[in-house]
Amino acid sequence: MKLVEVEGTHTLQTTYSSLDVHVGQSYSVLVTADQPGQDYYVVASSRFTSPIITTTGTVHYANSAGAVSGPPPGGPTIQVDWSLNQARSIRTNLTASGPRPNPQGSYHYGLINLTKTYVLENSAGQVNGKQRYGVNSVSFVPADTPLKLADYFKIGGVFRVGSISDKPTGGGLYLDTSVLGADYRTFVEIVFQNNEDIIQSWHLDGYSFFVVGMDGGQWTTASRDAYNLRDAVSRCTTQVYPKSWTAIHIALDNVGMWNLRTEFWARQYLGQQLYLRVYTSSTSLRDEFPIPRNARLCGRASGQRTRPL
């Protein structure tokens, strides 16, 4: 399989015999039909699970001389290092699909100064005798009004910016409507720290980000020495391996209240998510359009009036 695209990004055309596709991710590959004319297995199997779940398909040539034979090929199942190294090998093709004479890689994200670093650590625990999951000790609970509406209409008491720390606290889980504050048009770093034994997958609404680094153990500022600051892939969902970290860089060019969440739905429902509030005091249409006049309003925003366009 020759990898050619990842979530809208043209990649270096590397050939793989198998690909790890994590929750919420997508890949495009080319397969050259140059083998003898018979049927061949295509296998998809789960990774890092017990038991391993496998399903198969068949590549069938029009002139196939015979059916598939033998057991389906086995794939790597528990080798975290193998998967980690493959993820690092997936890089942007800097000479593809760019407006000439400027190449695609003319946006040098690695030369932009970081404004702020957020370190987000996932965890599990009990709150009031019930299973919960959280980030930096906060297990998210929804407010009675959509956060974007509360922010737009300046309704107090719905959420509090800074209700979640921008780094791990080491404390036990507690419930809150977690909102991180960030400034519009800044360039920030988010580090996902996973000290648990399962793989994580994180998605950020409203943005694509550069996956600049991942490795085992605890992230430190020295970890930046191994970052890919030239041709990292831009995507909106990234994996974090067990007992490992993943770092991303984001240009915050989209005003709003954006959900940052695990793609593990049970954990998401039970609190492993938060909101990133990208804020500007500007009311210019250049920065953000007002809410449409026919928008449905609810909660404490019921009865509010939207501004005309």
Automatic annotation (TrEMBL):
GO MF term list: copper ion binding; oxidoreductase activity
CDD domains: CuRO_3_AAO_like_1 (cd13894)
SUPFAM superfamilies reported for this sequence: Cupredoxins (SSF49503)
Ranges of residues in domain Plastocyanin-like: 1-63, 144-281
Keyword Glycoprotein: yes
Keywords: Glycoprotein
Pfam families for the chain: Cu-oxidase, Cu-oxidase_2
Stated family: Belongs to the multicopper oxidase family.
Protein name listed in UniProt: Plastocyanin-like domain-containing protein
